[in-house]
Amino acid sequence: xxxxxxxxxxxxxxxxxxxxxxxxxxxxxxxxxxxxxxxxxxxxxxxxxxxxxxxxxxxxxxxxxxxxxxxxxxxxxxxxxxxxxxxxxxxxxxxxxxxxxxxxxxxxxxxxxxxxxxxxxxxxxxxxxxxxxxxxxxxxxxxxxxxxxxxxxxxxxxxxxxxxxxxxxxxxxxxxxxxxxxxxxxxxxxxxxxxxxxxxxxxxxxxxxxxxxxxxxxxxxxxxxxxxxxxxxxxxxxxxxxxxxxxxxxxxxxxxxxxxxxxxxxxxxxxxxxxxxxxxxxxxxxxxxxxxxxxxxxxxxxxxxxxxxxxxxxxxxxxxxxxxxxxxxxxxxxxxxxxxxxxxxxxxxxxxxxxxxxxxxxxxxxxxxxxxxxxxxxxxx
Length: 381
Ligand SMILES: Cc1cc2nc3c(=O)[nH]c(=O)nc-3n(C[C@H](O)[C@H](O)[C@H](O)COP(=O)(O)O)c2cc1C
Hints:
Layout: H1 12-22, H2 25-32, H3 39-49, E1 68-70, E2 73-75, E3 79-81, H4 87-90, H5 94-105, E4 109-111, H6 119-126, E5 130-134, H7 140-152, E6 157-161, H8 171-175, H9 186-193, H10 196-205, H11 223-233, H12 240-249, E7 253-259, H13 262-270, E8 275-278, H14 292-303, E9 308-311, H15 318-326, E10 331-334, H16 336-345, H17 347-368
Helix pairs in contact: 1-16, 5-6, 5-17, 13-14, 15-17, 16-17
The chain binds flavin mononucleotide (FMN).
């Protein structure tokens, strides 16, 4: 892990505060926002806050390796970086910084189909720590090509997101005119000019692109056509028959992201998925969604012997990671914290975010006397 911490940020909350000061309001709102009234975001927080761990001081085991195995590979920590679309809006090259930091720390990094960095560039940074998240395009040849490109760079783990049958309704993004192409208003110009380091970095690197999708859009000359194309090709909801098709077409590990109920989890097991990510998309899709916290037990009881169960949504600290591990997850992903890292400090912030989460989790495990991440289930109160 990285040891040169910037002393201005000792927690994810500190990174978030610094990010707020460094990026324009429309980008910050896009990052932190949930959907509708942001109830699912606050519910994620409340649900995690109700998970407690019980220490046992007098019969301690040797502490504490954070190493964890997921899908047959050993990582240095039981947590990873969730896929984040439009990453370049938050900070240019954010995805590359995340990918490089994941490789250094030896944790999984999931690149979004809609990230601003291509599969090939992300692989150059993440190496074998790269997982690829697919929003399956409706055209089979593009789908196959994306998968083929992922295979070609050595990626073995394909994450298929099922919880975006429609776009989430995000009032702040609507009010901020956040769209492709962006609506340029006096307000957005003011917001940009008041964040000069973001403005300079963005001017230097250009508008964020959907870099992995670029080869299929070369004939499109303007941003509006690009947006329409992305909307139309990714518009089909992922149903069971699509998952079955992807299972046949993808020879590596298939991970289904966005599972929140037992029936879906059983379907994933039935089609021989290798893992699921229990997730409510960080509260960005359904404002009345239940939290993964409430579903973990039931899902693990019904499919835990058939596939690996990972989780994301609402993690704001290493303590939260400990909570999800105690609920039985074998790998805990999060999204926003890593963006707060990069928003606060650029490249170095990605390392710092990982370092904060690692140190916090290690402290909890040492305090409990817990020898390894999968032992945390024994400390659930
Ligand atoms: C800005 C942003 C963009 C996201 N883009 C994607 C995406 O392209 N694909 C995807 O499967 N999930 C996406 N997600 C959801 C995350 O992968 C993850 O499920 C969520 O962030 C977890 O919640 P957390 O941010 O509270 O950790 C996005 C989340 C955020 C905050």
